[in-house]
Amino acid sequence: MRKKLVLVLSISCYLCMSGEWRANGVYAESTILELPHPGGDTITFLEDTSVYDETWKEVGLLGPQTVKILETREVRWGHGEGYRRPIYLISTWLGDRWIAPNRALLGNPQPFVTKLDLGRIEPLYNDPLLSEPTGGQLAPQIVTTKAKWDEHYLIESKSGDKWIRPSYLFLEGVREVQEEVELLNLTPLMRHPYGLETGSSLSSQTVEVKEVWRNWHRIDSWLGPVWFKLYEANAVDVRHILEVNFGYRHIDEKDPKLTHMTVDVKLGPKWREVKEAMTVDFKFNLYNEKGERVAASRTGRAELNGAESKSVDLLVDGSLDQGYVYATVQITRMNDKKDPELDASAPMDIADPAQPKFRIGKVSVRQDGEFSIIKGQYELDAKGANQVKGRITFTDQNGQVIGTVPLDLITDAANPGKGTPFAFECVISGGLKHYVNVKLEVDSIASLK
Where is the signal peptide (predicted)? Predict the structure, then answer.
């Protein structure tokens, strides 16, 4: 707690500076006696920033300072269709006017502990505004952060806590590991997850992974450090039957929570060898960096043969505005077999003693880079649509908790009740590879009739 207080006080000292207004290219006296300190509704300029009226005519210029945000909008900026960017309404000597700063910090510094993989040499600074360079630099390496202010990070270094603003090719949220990963297919190698192909690939083999980020893996090779994914598609199912790549999408005109998306689908490498055409019903789930599901598609169907690819139009429920970083595919029917991953004979013996009518079984965990994908099946002794909320906890051989996954399921309205298994999927950011026991806790079971 003491360290946090010192951090906030030191940041405040750098921001208690007098502002200066400019009008029509000429400096004007500021009528502000005290600038606001950074907060959730403030923005801090790091350079001169233009001021616009409602017609987007430039009417003034503001020097570096902290101001309160009255309103935020998103507009198209630039030539042609341009690109979408936020603009902010603030109070000025001319009244309320708009700004669209290029270099600015939103809000205030927040405690933030994670690991960054720095891809380039980074200069070090003593202050969060990067106005006091130390003269020192960091070579490309993995560092631990203590706080974050927009794109500025407070990190631990040999010379104490310092601020950096990482340049392109850095990765936030990496995890250092020492684990073996099996490659089942020819796997292309990349210099970096953002691109830079090496032109080389690895054949099927087991490799030792040193670092993971999202669904990327880093290894040391004859080329130096390189990255790979277990599959090239945007999403696959647990058995790699189907590969899905996302294409064009647009929000529904009547329902903003509904998105129309076109996807390209094809069979996985081993399934392309099957001579007969295959009819596959599928859907996909989209997750954020924490492993929280942000959207899910409705079921689509594709008839595929060999290596051919087909486009399928799907409806996606949920908001994609916040973005997603990971996706999975669920096969709901393959040829004439419904839910091919279900096993009606599997024991459903994991239950909460306080809610015995809901049970899970056939739980498995698949690791894909940073993410653990939990698959299983459940039974609910209640007919119709019901919502089940709770959590699944994984412990190691010493009884220590290594991960807890929120559970939020809605059963189908046609659910006949007892004895009918349904598939479920959860995702968590972190490794569950060495779990030994699974515990289910149910908070509520509510009818949706």
Answer: 1-23
